[in-house]
Amino acid sequence: MKSTANISTDPLALLALKARVNSEFLAANWSTATSICNWVGVTCGSRHHRVIALDLFRMNLSGTIPPNIGNLSFVVSLDIGGNYFHRSLPVELANLRRLKFLILSNNHFEGKISSWFGSFVKLQILDLSCNNFMGVIPVEIGNLPSLRYLYLHDNQFSSSLPSSVFNISSLVEIVLARNQLSGSIPSIPFNMSSLRRIDLSYNNLTGRIPSDMFGHLPRLNLLTLSVNLLSGPIPMNLFKCQELEQLSLSVNYLEGVIPEEIGNLTMLRILLLGRNNLKGKIPLEIGNLPNLDYLNLANNSISGHVPHAIFNSSTVRVISLSLNHLSGCLPWSTGRWLPKLERLFLDINAFSGTIPTSISNASKLTDLDLSYNSFSVYIPNDLGNLRHLKQLKLENNTLASTPSTPEISFLSSLAYCKNLTFLRFDANPLVDGELPKSIGNLCTSLQIFTASYCNIGGNIPGEIGNLSNLIRLNINNNELIGSIPTTIGRLEKLQGLYLEDNKFEGSLPSDLCRLQSLGFLYLTSNKLGGPIPACLGDIISLRELFVDSNKLIGSIPSTFTRLIDILQVNLSSNFLSKALPVDIGNWKVVTIIDFSENQLSSEIPISIGDLEDLTHLSLSGNRLYGSIPELFGGLIGLEFLDLSRNNFSGIISKSLQKLLHLEYLNVSFNRLHGEIPNGGPFASCTIQSFMGNEALCGAPRLQLPPCTSNSTKHSRKATKLIEFILLPVSSTLLILALIVFFFQSQRKHSKQQIDQENSIGLANWRRISYQELHQATNGFCESKLLGVGSFGSIYQGALSDGLNIAIKVFNLEVEGSFKSFEVECEVLRNIRHRNLVKIISSCCNVDFKALVLEFMPNGSLEKWLYSHNYCLDILHRLNIMIDVASALEYLHHGQTILVAHCDLKPSNVLLDEDMVAHLGDFGIAKLLGEEDSTVQTITLAIIGYMALEYGTQGVVSIKGDVYSFGILLIETLTRKKPTDEMFVGEMSLIHWVTESLPCALTQIVDANLLITTKE
């Protein structure tokens, strides 16, 4: 009877699991009509017919683990990895004393790991990776004498490393990467003769790497301690591990020299020591490592020459020595013995001499970066032999083109590089040649071509129009002549055209209007004449337009006011005439306007008062007249205002005292009179700002006559006039305006939100290094961590100038993180709106990618909804929803490229100090073309927020965002998540609300709203 009872517990345990799991497949297969030994994923023993293995790996199961699972007392192997199980583990698991293999990886388990894990005395594999476990790693794990593989990576474990783990002599692999472990590595002998892999990377470990740990690890194959806070020298005992194939100590604070004993590691394939404080020379022995595949010593303080043997390695694929103090010449045979070399990074050093022609023998080379050195003499024409080359960077050297031809000959040779996408050779002033017609033969995949500051002369060949995929063309600050070729209009993907500081003549070709993706047009300081083509106003993608310091004539085209997303406009120092554009107020997000030194003649349009983001306005040196508008007082962000040398008359309005950020003011040489205000920016002005006017008076410090009583009398008369005449009329108009606004506010609200969008333009873009980010976050410490997402972590930081920022650091080992980084950069680069999180900068390297974003001090909507310490009233919630709706309307309809956010949820709605909502996290967003209303995707958003067709078919459209917005709105008013446990089977958040209306409204609305309403 006892045996029968025990056997019956197995079906009951499995049926309990089936009841906790959402799976139609298990519901059909695990039937009591058949033996459990025939159930999918179940293996029974041949003797007792008890369950000995349960394998449900990657069966798309969702649910929790029931306590009954502990009754499978004969189970040896339990594998439920790659599913969607959640919550904590039941303590009854400790009853599975026969377990040898426990695999729970890639789920959503949470909670702490209890001491009962130490009871699995037969356990050989423990894999809890890629979950949400937290707390300390229990010391009892050290009591597992048979454990061979320990995988705890990609969780949220904190505290220090338990030394007991390193006393398990049977261990083969230990992986604790990407947690929040702190403290030092235990300084004890690691007596584990079988240990082959140690990975403690991406934690917060501090202190020195203990020398004791390597004395008894004869079979160690991989050691990864990268991205921690480790310091001190590289321990000598490490080089006793002669089977080591991969050594990664990068992104730490290691110091001292690289020991020459590294040559003992003859099996080493990957050596990563980048981003430390190492100094001294590169040991000769590194070049003699017979199996070396990947060498990264970048971003240290290493000096001296590079050993010739490194450039003669027949096995190496990647050499990265960037950002050091290396010097000397490259050996003449560089590349001759590098048959497998794919990527060579020597940038930002002090190399000199010639670029060896033998480098062209490295036939598999895809990336070559020699920029920011002192290379001289000629750019080899043999570079064209590198047929797989994708990126070539030679900028900031003293290189020249071969003198055998007036043309830049090496460009012709690059026509054989059919994969070339990135070509830079800026700031090589000795290049001094002409662009060859063969430039049109360069690979059509070329996207970036920059050759500024190279003394290039001659014309731009018309063949440049063949580069159909070009995104950016920089040939500014050269000696180019002739006209701008009309064939540039064929570069329909071009986003940036930089031709400033040359000697171009002729008119602006109307073919430029075909560049409908153009965002940045720089034609400053040339000899261009004729009128400005009106069709430029149809390039609605334009963000920055600089055509100043030319000989342009005619008027400013009225079509320019269609550029509603323009950020900076500079038309100064031309011969433009007639009036300022009446509808200039359409430039809602413009920050810089410079029309100075022209022949413009008109009053300042009233609509200029709508430019709330304007910081720089220069209208000096024109023939403008009329009064200075009082509306200027509403431009509260204005920092620079120059109205000098015009024909303005009247008084200086006291409304300008409101411009508290104004640093430069100049109204000199006009026909102004009356009193100069004393408040605001006027308090720091000097006489230079006001000289050359008719009858100004003011404070003695301005060396002007004091204001007389006449002016006071005049002021009183003006006051009476306003009081008895203008005020009644204004009141009537105000009442009428309010009536109109009342009926039209709902229709216009969305447009007003788009008009208030704000952005940080390229001129304000900040270059922020990894070191700055590291310092801003105290080494990416846990106290600065704001949250962890699918593709990385978000930290709060403060730059050296006091600017608070949020840093989104991408975990590059997570599949899809590279794509997520690229998508988020692409989206945030192309959109800007007051209700979207603003990007300040990015930091992108081979092994580190991060976005620097505007910091939102009030956190997320999720925090305000579900924390007991916060409460939102109904007005706040509605305002937040209106902000989110405004952001979505802009993404869907406010620009040429439609953007589907695809991940709308409370945690992605962030609140600034004024509780204004900003939509963030575009990591899985999709960009839709004008004709593509839907696309297919395999990247899914959070279940519960996505529309049915998105979740089941992978179809993405802006309609999916609208659905998600509806869910978000309901959640905001009910404070109930769509993934709440109450929603099982056919019951969902939408069904719950629908069934509760209208009779049970008070039962579903957030109780906090009822309380605040009563109060």
Descriptive account of the structure:
- The protein has 13 helices and 63 strands.
- By secondary structure, it is α/β, with parallel strands linked by helices.
- Helix 4 packs across helix 8 and helix 8 runs antiparallel to helix 10.
- The N terminus is likely disordered.
- Helices cover 16% and strands 22% of the residues.
- The longest helix has 47 residues.
- The chain has a 27-stranded mixed sheet, with no helix packed on it.
- It catalyses: L-seryl-[protein] + ATP = O-phospho-L-seryl-[protein] + ADP + H(+); L-threonyl-[protein] + ATP = O-phospho-L-threonyl-[protein] + ADP + H(+).
- Pfam families: LRR_1 (PF00560), LRR_8 (PF13855), LRRNT_2 (PF08263), PK_Tyr_Ser-Thr (PF07714).
- Keywords: ATP-binding, Cell membrane, Glycoprotein, Kinase, Leucine-rich repeat, Membrane, Nucleotide-binding, Phosphoprotein, Receptor, Repeat, Serine/threonine-protein kinase, Signal, Transferase, Transmembrane, Transmembrane helix.
Structure summary:
The protein has 1015 residues and is α/β, with parallel strands linked by helices.
Write the layout of secondary structure elements.
Blueprint: H1 2-20, H2 24-29, E1 42-44, E2 51-55, E3 62-63, E4 77-79, E5 84-87, E6 101-103, E7 108-112, E8 125-127, E9 132-135, E10 149-151, E11 156-157, E12 173-175, E13 182-183, E14 197-199, E15 204-208, E16 222-224, E17 229-232, E18 246-248, E19 253-257, E20 270-272, E21 277-280, E22 294-296, E23 301-304, E24 318-320, E25 325-329, E26 343-345, E27 350-353, E28 367-369, E29 374-378, E30 391-393, E31 398-400, H3 409-413, E32 422-424, E33 448-450, E34 457-458, E35 472-474, E36 479-480, E37 496-498, E38 520-522, E39 529-531, E40 544-546, E41 551-555, E42 568-570, E43 575-578, E44 592-594, E45 599-600, E46 616-618, E47 625-626, E48 640-642, E49 647-650, E50 664-666, E51 671-675, E52 695-697, H4 709-755, H5 770-776, E53 785-788, E54 792-798, E55 804-810, H6 817-830, E56 839-845, E57 848-854, H7 861-866, H8 874-893, E58 898-900, E59 909-911, E60 917-919, E61 926-928, E62 934-936, H9 948-953, E63 955-957, H10 958-974, H11 989-996, H12 1001-1004, H13 1007-1014
Parallel strand pairs: 2-4, 3-5, 4-6, 5-7, 6-8, 7-9, 8-10, 9-11, 10-12, 12-14, 13-15, 14-16, 15-17, 16-18, 17-19, 18-20, 19-21, 20-22, 21-23, 22-24, 23-25, 24-26, 25-27, 26-28, 27-29, 28-30, 29-31, 30-32, 32-33, 33-35, 34-36, 35-37, 37-38, 38-40, 39-41, 40-42, 41-43, 42-44, 43-45, 44-46, ...
Antiparallel strand pairs: 1-2, 53-54, 54-55, 55-57, 56-57, 58-61, 59-60, 62-63
Helix pairs in contact: 4-8, 8-10
